[in-house]
Amino acid sequence: MVKITFIGAGSTIFAKNVLGDAMLTPSLSHADIALYDINQQRLRESELMLKTINKNANHSRAKIRTYQDRKEALTGADFVINAIQVGGYQPSTVIDFEIPKKYGLRQTIGDTMGIGGIFRTLRTLPVMLEFAREMEEVCPQAWLLNYTNPMAMLTMGILKATKIKTVGLCHSVQVCVSDLFKQLGISEQYQAEEFQWKIAGINHMAFLLELTKDGKDFYPKIRELAAAKPHPHQDSVRFELMKRFGYYITESSEHNAEYHPYFIKKLYPELIDDFDIPLDEYLRRCENQINDWSQMRESIVMNGELTHTRSNEYASYIMDSIVTGTPSVIAGNVLNKGLITNLPEDCCVEVPCLVDKNGIQPTYIGRLPTQLAALNRTNINVQELTVEAALTFDRSKIYQAAYLDPHLSSELSLEAITCLVDELIEAHGDYLPEYK
């Protein structure tokens, strides 16, 4: 019997998607599903919801259990899904936004790059290393499917510091083309499934390198339509980056606004309106989710008729391919072992991967266009130094990562960045290890 362990199972909606998908997949429908979370109430709610889906699914006979002991939950697992958020919205996310504001630094999401991404990594990677080392002891052959951000930094850290087979999984690649068509207003005229494309780069900054239909390059049409769409609109940042650098980026405009030094600037406040940049967006999303949960609890957790439709999340497809040998193709975050030749060795890259009984096998991309590799490197610099800081407890590496961040370095002096880092270390307290 396949055993699937979900760490952070209190993420109820996400657990519904990933584990609901598994229960609808014949090779996984009789799996032993182990749920673990430090929040006991949310863990119990996820258990109730998943047992309802299991009961209502025609062919699912999964065995669903919750665990108080993480190591016990991991014992014998074939697959481990990670969806933790260390420090949660309160206090950690609020700290990551509010203290930088004192220095005049604004963010949109703060979960991947910038000062928010750096400190989320410093909080999260030590916890992931703890359970990855438990995996080395009790389920050493298991695959770790990481969904937690900052995707590149956390996946890189686990792959560099442990022997656990790990892949980072994001939602942005599989919807990139359909989202682009929607933003251009052509989603009714053209269906994404009719096109062939290639996407590669780094997480949240991978690029739509090729887009063809019936063997014909469709990019000239895309660039023409994007250039004709007046600003501001929901995808203004991505369209501007495509205009200047030639290619469309996988992740949303609100994310990419803070990955680059061009959009959120004290000297040019008009850019916020010009590009429709939603400052503090992640705070609003968290608050809305918290406020809406009581109503959602009734419709999801307490709904005895609840069912599920298989989503486009990669996890169930990966597990099915490894169990049955039926091939699938995913976009995975893996170490760069010569896959993208003009990005640093052993950074974390996002590339197409073949999945079958041999596991997850990344594919060779070669060189990215020079300007795209250059954009990626500005983020990789920060990622590598942040991971080094988390693995060595070297405080100087935190400063250096922040000094090199594109947004931070365009807004603050070296001394201001140093003070900001010091204040955040103190504010996060016991959520961080001691840095020397």
TrEMBL record:
Xref: InterPro entries: GH4_Enzyme_sf (IPR053715), GlycHydrolase_4_CS (IPR019802), Glyco_hydro_4 (IPR001088), Glyco_hydro_4_C (IPR022616), Lactate_DH/Glyco_Ohase_4_C (IPR015955), NAD(P)-bd_dom_sf (IPR036291)
Residues reported in the UniProt entry to bind substrate: N149
Recorded superkingdom: Bacteria
Keywords: Carbohydrate metabolism, Cobalt, Glycosidase, Hydrolase, Iron, Manganese, Metal-binding, NAD, Nickel
Chain sites annotated for binding Mn(2+): C170, H204
GO molecular function: hydrolase activity, acting on glycosyl bonds; metal ion binding
One Pfam family this sequence matches: Glyco_hydro_4
Domain Glycosyl hydrolase family 4 C-terminal: 199-407
Required cofactor names: NAD(+); Mn(2+)
Cofactor mode of binding and number, as noted: Binds 1 NAD(+) per subunit.
Metal-binding listed as a keyword: yes
UniProt keyword Magnesium, yes or no: no
Site (Increases basicity of active site Tyr): D111
Family affiliation: Belongs to the glycosyl hydrolase 4 family.
Listed PANTHER family: 6-PHOSPHO-BETA-GLUCOSIDASE-RELATED, ALPHA-GALACTOSIDASE
Protein name per Swiss-Prot or TrEMBL: Alpha-glucosidase/alpha-galactosidase
Species for this entry: Enterococcus gallinarum
